[in-house]
Design goal:
With about 375 residues, the chain is of the alpha/beta class. It has two domains: about 5-170 and about 350-365, Rossmann fold (3-Layer(aba) Sandwich), CATH 3.40.50; about 190-345, Glycogen Phosphorylase B (Rossmann fold, 3-Layer(aba) Sandwich). The protein has helices at about 10-25, 40-50, 70-85, 100-110, 130-140, 150-160, 175-180, 190-195, 215-230, 245-255, 265-275, 285-295, 310-315, 325-335, 335-345, 355-365; strands spanning about 5-10, 30-35, 55-60, 90-95, 115, 145-150, 165-170, 200-205, 235-240, 260-265, 280, 300, 315-320. The strands form two sheets. It has a seven-stranded parallel sheet with strand order 3-2-1-4-5-6-7, sandwiched between helices. β4 (about 90-95), α4 and β5 form a beta-alpha-beta unit. Bound molecules: uridine-diphosphate-N-acetylglucosamine. Uridine-diphosphate-N-acetylglucosamine binds near residues 43, 98, 132 and 208. Uridine-diphosphate-N-acetylglucosamine binds near residues 65, 66, 208 and 240.
Amino acid sequence: MLKLALVFGTRPEAIKMAPLVKACQGVAGWDTRVIVTGQHREMVDQVLELFDLEAHYDLNIMSHGQTLNEISERTLRGMAGIFREWRPDLVLVHGDTSTAFAAALAAFHERIPVGHVEAGLRTPSVQNPFPEEANRRLIDVLAHWYFAPTERAAENLRLERVDPDRIFVTGNTVIDALLSVVEKDFEFTTPELRRLDFNRPILVVTAHRRENWGEPLTGICQALLEISARSQMQIVVAMHKNPDIQAVMKGFLGSDANITLVDAPGYKEFANLLARCTLLLTDSGGLQEEAPALHKPVLVMREVTERPEALEAGTVKLVGSAQDSIVTAVLQLLSDAQLYQRMSTAPNPYGDGTAALRICAILQEKYK
Ligand code: UD1
């Protein structure tokens, strides 16, 4: 019998791990448990409820204004307790958050093997995105199994001399999650989203990354005001729960009639909004994978991306966070039908929605 722990703490990890939890809990004879750190509280609870997941352990670590060291320290201590008491045979972590890194380190210290889901993503600089690039590299130093979403990610790992027999190309589980919640005749429940006119163009915006806190976020807000004044778009900003980010966004954008601010919409609401929008402006990592699956062009407000596959496929474009370059890129995409067509029909490089089943099948083979 395999004792398997799946750990997550933030919303994106919860979404991307949900299909894998379901798949592994379906394997007879396995004791598959979910450990939530609670790095995010409301945003993770929404996902647990949506996918009908139960947390067997919840460290409940979130505090407002938490620092990276506080997240890591509380996770490390909490995980150590659980690992010592329950002793799983394998711990699966996801991606690049502080939850994932601290959980991987705690497992490593307890000599419990770690499987890294979404392994092998890289940018050239350990500082960017901060601290995620460091987190994912550190996890890959500690891990035993590597589930790479793409061939490119697997190649990054081989270049770092990871044993090729421990690397598997599986696709990204986010596509599995996304396809399970997008519905053709979806009815929104969020009042602000119900009021949108889906026959008119919609620009969806998200911004939360640490590199964009401060001046860049101001530039992003000013760009949105300019786009609002110069186009017919309805602009929907899906705000992160971080109160500091919300304060800036509400201050700049709260009184513009074309701009709708929505407080951290649930995943199903957001995914269905994405499915109905014209284009997406974001600094998120995961959205660079999801939007192409829904055939939506993505303009990324970052200088670098760890997801070059989407860039190469032509569905994603990097625009940085300067006001001028954001405005120019959005207006160009709206006025150039050929460019829009090219970006929205590019192939999705992140898989077909069966990544979780693949990972589960690999584990069944390795732990029979
Ligand atoms: C974290 C991840 C980032 C990921 C992002 C997704 C790290 C270092 N960063 O960043 O990689 O892209 O999650 O959202 O792990 N908050 C709430 N309720 C919630 C969630 C957040 O109030 O449900 C507020 C809290 O005040 C918290 C703040 O948001 O202090 C920031 O959350 P934190 O997890 O520290 O950083 P994120 O920017 O969300």
